[in-house]
């Protein structure tokens, strides 16, 4: 860093690129965040609780799963376990991204609070050409986090005025959303087996044992089915 | 604005667990390489969990929900995410009116 100028211009470019890359993702997340807030309120959460969950957990999939199975009082251990299962993918994402991020370990510990599927995917793409800087990451993280938290809060406030969610089919919105998300994993044989086994076990457990155990048992059965259905690895 | 203690604890538990999954990769960056069946099992976690969450609503609530779920699944391979949600919600309202 012999001159201040090139540093500042690089810094600005990194922030600008981060904002440019994350903008379409943030726009797409707004209606999803609104939906989350509205359904969460319909399930009995207060707008403040919705804001806190979106700000602190900041993970759509885990939040949707928690709200879909929401009962009062909240089953803390079951929610924590479902969250662990859904977010276990972060471990692989973080492991893959860490060598490509130009940050100290302490900075990374802070930066990874904002690790999401989207920020990860964009960073991996960028890392093909250049290292991922703190400025690039921070720009994406700040926008996505503020966007998600605000959308959830607005959704919660609007949802308070919507009334009975069943009348407008809002209680089915998450089910439809999840079906859409699952379709994103494709139609490979392993995925189809996973989906079928998970659905069957979850439905049976829910009927004969009850919530919230259907989530963990269905998920674990689906994961085991994927393990069995996948071709055996070639040992090296 | 109300804040229930149990709900707050649940939110904090979810937040801590999520943060731990986010930083765990930092400590295993050069050791974690999954292949074959282990990778297939790990990749299957998100769809397996998502399906398990919605299975009771989609399959055992009633014919309206089951049919709407089937229609939504067909739409899911052709439409963007929000379009899929719209089709699902519209079909469940319609089918509840008919059935």
Q: How are the SSEs placed, and which strands pair?
A:
The complex is a heterodimer of chains A (236) and B (99).
Chain A: H1 4-42, H2 47-56, H3 60-68, H4 76-87, H5 89-97, E1 101-102, H6 105-111, H7 117-127, E2 132-133, H8 134-159, H9 173-183, H10 189-208, H11 213-229
Parallel strand pairs in A: 1-2
Helix pairs in contact in A: 1-3, 1-8, 2-8, 3-4, 4-11, 5-7, 10-11
Chain B: H1 5-27, H2 36-43, H3 45-60, H4 63-76, H5 81-98
Gist of the model:
The complex is a heterodimer of chains A (236) and B (99). With 236 residues, chain A is mainly α. Chain A has helices at residues 4-42, 47-56, 60-68, 76-87, 89-97, 105-111, 117-127, 134-159, 173-183, 189-208, 213-229, and strands at residues 101-102, 132-133.
Q: Which labels suit this protein?
A:
heterodimer, A: mainly alpha, two-stranded parallel ribbon, 72% helix, B: 99 residues, extended
Architecture overview:
The complex is a heterodimer of chains A (236) and B (99). With 236 residues, chain A is an all-alpha fold. Helix content of chain A is 72%, strand content 2%. Chain A folds into two domains: 4-168, no CATH class; 185-236, no CATH class. Chain A is built from eleven helices and two strands, in the order αααααβααβαααα. With 99 residues, chain B is mainly alpha-helical. Chain B has one domain (5-98). Chain B has five helices and no strands. Chain B starts with a helix and ends with a helix. At the A-B interface, α1, α2, α3, α4 and α5 of A face α1, α2, α3, α4 and α5 of B.
């Amino acid at each position: 860093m012999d001159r201040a100028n090139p540093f500042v211009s690089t810094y600005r470019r990194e922030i600008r690129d981060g904002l440019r890359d994350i903008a379409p993702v943030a726009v797409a997340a707004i209606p999803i965040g609104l939906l989350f807030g509205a359904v969460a309120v319909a399930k009995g959460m207060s707008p403040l609780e919705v804001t806190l969950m979106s700000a602190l957990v900041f993970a759509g999939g885990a939040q949707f799963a928690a709200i879909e199975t929401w009962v009062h009082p909240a089953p803390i251990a079951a929610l924590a376990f479902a969250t662990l299962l859904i977010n276990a993918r972060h471990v692989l994402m973080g492991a893959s991204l860490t060598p490509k991020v130009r940050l100290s370990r302490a900075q990374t510990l802070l930066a990874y609070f904002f690790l999401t599927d989207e920020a990860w995917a964009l960073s991996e793409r960028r890392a093909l050409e250049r290292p991922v800087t703190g400025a690039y990451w921070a720009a994406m993280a700040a926008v996505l986090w503020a966007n998600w938290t605000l959308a959830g809060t607005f959704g919660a406030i609007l949802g308070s005025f919507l009334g009975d969610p069943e009348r407008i089919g809002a209680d089915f919105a998450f089910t439809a959303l999840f079906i859409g998300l699952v379709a994103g994993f494709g139609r490979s044989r392993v995925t189809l087996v996973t989906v079928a086994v998970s659905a069957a076990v979850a439905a049976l457990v829910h009927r004969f044992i009850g919530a919230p155990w259907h989530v963990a048992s269905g998920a674990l059965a689906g994961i085991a089915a994927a393990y069995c259905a996948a071709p055996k690895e070639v040992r090296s | 604005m109300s804040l229930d203690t149990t709900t707050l604890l649940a939110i904090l538990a979810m937040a801590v667990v999520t943060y731990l999954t986010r930083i765990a990769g930092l400590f295993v960056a050069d050791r974690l390489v999954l292949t074959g069946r282990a990778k297939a099992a790990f990749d299957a976690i998100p769809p397996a969990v998502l399906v398990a969450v919605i299975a009771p609503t989609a399959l055992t609530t009633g014919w309206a929900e089951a049919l709407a779920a089937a229609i939504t699944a067909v739409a899911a391979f052709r439409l963007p995410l929000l379009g899929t949600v719209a089709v699902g919600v519209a079909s469940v309202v319609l089918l509840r009116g008919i059935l």
